[in-house]
Amino acid sequence: MPSWASAAAILGALIPAATAPAAPAPFYANTFEKAPTAAAMTAVGRALFFDRSLSASGKMACASCHDPARAFGPPNDLAVQRGGADERHYGMRAVPSLMYTQNIAPFTEHFFDDEGDDSIDQGPAGGRMWDGRASSAHDQARLPMFSVFEMANASADAVVEKVRHAAYAARFRETFGGKIFDDHDLALKAVLMALETFQQSPADFYPYSSRYDAWLRRETSLSASELRGLAAFNDPAKGNCARCHPSAMREGAFPQFTDFGYAAVGAPRNLAIPANANRRYYDLGLCGPLRADLAGIKKYCGMFRTPTLRNVATRGVFMHNGVFHHLRDVLRFYAERDVRPQLWYPRAPNGSRRKFDDLPLQYQGNVDVAGPFGRSPGDAPALSEGDIEDIIAFLNTLTDGYVEPRR
Ligand code: HEC
Ligand code: HEC
Questions:
Q1: Second label for 111, Cα 20 to 30 Å away, from 94, 175, 243, 379?
Q2: What is the pLDDT of residues 212-232, one digit of tens each?
Q3: Residue 270 CB less than 6 A away from ligand 2
Q4: In the chain, where does the domain assigned CATH 1.10.760.10 lie?
Q5: DSSP readout, 157-176?
Q6: Which atom of ligand 2 is nearest to the CA of 304?
Q7: Per-residue pLDDT for 116 more than 70?
Q8: Per-residue pLDDT averaged across 42-61, rounded?
Q9: Which ligand is nearest to the CA of 67?
Q10: Which SS3 state, helix, strand or coil, does residue 303 take?
């Protein structure tokens, strides 16, 4: 969401509707009978987010997949969740956390860093979803509501009818105007805007309340192991993790642990995803098939948006395809992918190892080979077992909800 829109949504100072009849009003224009306040939209959005009746099955809310107890990430350790009208359709990707997504800019193919060296095209960045195909949280909310794999509503009318009969219907009318349910398009817009505004709520979605944040504020100390982990995380000769998951304050802003860019790290194929039973199906991220507009642009195949590592220790499933279930496995994968590939990729029918088995051969050159990757088989890994333990200890300091014990 552009920052003007975010500011408008947060302040509740909505832009007046355009009077020109031809062009449709911009999404954030106030086309409601009553100008909704951010606080009222947040309250309605929260109710919508937890409402199971907003699905064809009547059993699935946004919160069923985005569990607030686990940083609005998956509620369990399954690679993909089940949804749909009969709750039997499997999704194609792991559920991402919804926290710290408030600053995601709309997708661009050419990102220039105006705070660093602004002459370097850093390639694709931004956008929502693992492949950036949704440009804002409200565009995004449409997708699960109508996806056959998720909430599977047949139409906007179906959603609006459910809201009209929900326990919070009166609050919805108070927020957007008494006649809001008479116009289904406008009511759907109200639903999407309320969900988006709720996801902008700092206390729920970006509290910066981890031990690491407390340490950055000089309110607490980190253990020796956690400090070694942070150093190894940052060290270009070790984890080099901060290259894509920045860990430092920047111009007074707390780090997001993602640069919102895209990379192919070559995660192994996950046969626990039913779609992968089809040997010809590949989830190639930016170049499709879930995202359609960049299909055929070979240099993008295999790239996914770098996720934030805030609250990562609350997850039971990692990477876009949920192939890993323990942070230790993720760390070992980073350390060993190129030096001990036999531990990470299966044998092909002819007995050879098939490295990067979730990418067709012609795209394997897209895989990132700079540190911690890029050594040769048999070389020492970039991270020792001790480094891995320390980095895990450090990643555990990124979980929100830390309260300094009373002295
Ligand atoms: C059946 C499980 C499921 C349900 C229900 C669900 N989601 Fe999601 N959500 C996902 C998955 C899986 C992804 C990643 C999809 C992808 O990358 O293709 C996702 C992605 C997102 C994202 C993008 C996050 C990012 O990092 O860019 C947002 C925002 C989101 N969901 C919000 C919602 C809202 C709001 C609802 C309710 C209207 C909802 N979700 C319902 C599974 C679900
Ligand atoms: C080249 C950029 C890059 C570097 C360097 C990098 N990562 Fe990542 N990281 C990514 C991307 C992209 C993904 C998602 C990959 C996918 O889903 O296929 C990811 C995923 C992860 C995940 C899974 C998170 C989740 O929500 O599923 C963890 C944990 C992680 N990285 C930690 C690290 C650590 C620790 C290091 C250093 C040892 C590191 N990363 C180095 C880009 C990078």
A1: 94
A2: 999 999 999 999 999 999 999
A3: no
A4: 3-205, 211-398
A5: HHHHHHHHTSTTHHHHHHHH
A6: 12
A7: no
A8: 94
A9: 1
A10: strand
